[in-house]
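Problem 12. The chain below contains 528 residues. Write out its predicted structure in token notation.
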Amino acid sequence: MQSPAIEALFARFGPRYRYYVTFTAMLGTAATALMATMTNVAVPVIMGAFGVGQDKVHWISTGFIAAMTISMLLSDWCVRAFGMKVTYIGAMAVFIFGGIMGGLSNSIDLIIVARVLQGAGAGIGQPLAMVLILQVFPVEWRGRAMGLMSVGIMAAPAVGPAIGGVLLDSFNWQYVFFMSAPVPAVGIILAMVFMPGGERRRELPAFDWTGLVLVSLCIACSLTGLSSGQREGWGAPIISVLFSIGIISGAAFIFWQLVTPSPLLQVRVFANRRFSASIIVGLVLSLGFYGAGYLVPVFVQTVQGYSPTRSGLLMIPGGVFMMLILPIWGRLSDKLPSYQITLFGLGVYGCSSLLMMQAATDTGFWVFVSWLMLGRLGQAAMMPTLMVTAVSTLKQEYLSQGAGALNFMRNLGGAVGVNMVAVLLGQRTAFFSDAYAGLQTPDNSATQHFMLQFAHILNQLGWPFEMTRSGVLYLVGRSVHSQASMMAFKDVFLFIALAFFAAMIPALLLRETRPKPKARPVPAARTG
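Solution.
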């Protein structure tokens, strides 16, 4: 059911209004989704600029996604309190402010704070766009509507690393943050014309502050414990405390949402079997998408020696390919069984991750591109299908809450995914580094031959003995670390592949259960 404000805008602009407002909403979602990955190519540069490691720098990505996840639960209340237009404009203004603050920051902590602000603005705007698009498109067009929206949510992050790479090589990392301002600014201007307003309220609706505190504690403590476990030790008291607070506050949040009259997250929507199955598969999709989006640029820059621009260009063909096929899959999701499309997408993405395990120092650019494009095919199949399946099973009064829950869980999967990828990468790199370093003994003929050959070259160049010895040892250490990193990346890609194959089990629950036709009564036999 459309609101009077939307009906008035349809009367003013005609049937094409749905495309005008969809484009306006997509500018916000595309800009926010773009920044989710555009900074990934800047991670190695920022690590060098501020002298920090993976255990801290990944918060540039994790902090953004975590803040976006929590603030999505504010979207429904903001729309009810201030209307869609004011909420959208306010969210984009916070996002722009965070981008400018990040570009002007002179410490890693300020950059992380700026990313958290950007995530807060992004989280409020994304569910709003989804609910708005569902209201302006008829039910039978929901698949193509979700396909259009998916272009902003999924395709924009795919091309984000390319834009970030060009900005890094042409200017510096600060411009990656400054670039987040122009597109939302255009969205604000268009929103003043096309976004529906809200009725003025004398009193603000009730808000669940207790729920917000509990869910924030749960996510913040859990992610902090996960990211700090490698550095502090998984058995350290502080890690145990963080995980304990995360688990207790998470359980308390669920209980509170069931008893409070104005829940932040309508937990009862998860009682719907197909909705819950869509959520589980969406978690895995986000884990793979954001995790791989963080992993691939870091791999090609640290292992293969790509420049930021080249690592960004690696993502362009897959992003363009996904933009072209997302509307097609959106239409197909209106016609084909959702569980079949989802199983296809999970299988294709899982195979793409298995192929990624073959990546090495000499893997060609276009080979990598072909593997990424295969993964984008799987993503494009799943994204609109999962969104349509999730919202189509909900009643109209739960539509806004369901959209918030769907986006909340999807981004929670992204936050956990980036964190798990960073932790697993660090663990496996340390494991393989220790293993390979233990093999570099005087009995290792291959290492001895390599060191003698390189020392001979340095001696011919006139290097003193001590410098030659230090140079040889440094090169051996770099070789060991490079080999260990490559093996660690293989293990992480395997983890992502297994997660997608495992998600095929809940995907089967997306199948519709149609009631069997009642058997006709058998006519009684005539007697006499």
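Discussion. Residues 234 and 240 are 8 Å apart (CA to CA). Students who got a different answer should revisit the alignment rule from Section 12.3.
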